[in-house]
Amino acid sequence: RLDLEQTLKRYCHLYNHHIPQKALGHKAPIQAMREWQKRRPDLFVKEIRNHPGPDR
User: Fold this and answer.
1) What gap in Å lies between CA 36 and CA 42, rounded to an integer?
2) Residue ranges covered by each domain of the chain
3) pTM (2 d.p.)
């Protein structure tokens, strides 16, 4: 179970931070969200942070 949990966390991090998405203009989701926050800061309560690696 622990291995599955770690694998899923790593995949989520990889997907959100490193894999470009066609629907987002070939940008990673975190990059697209940061750009959106710059354009519409009123929509965000917290600052978007780019964590250097997956949680362990």
Assistant:
1) 10
2) 2-43
3) 0.72
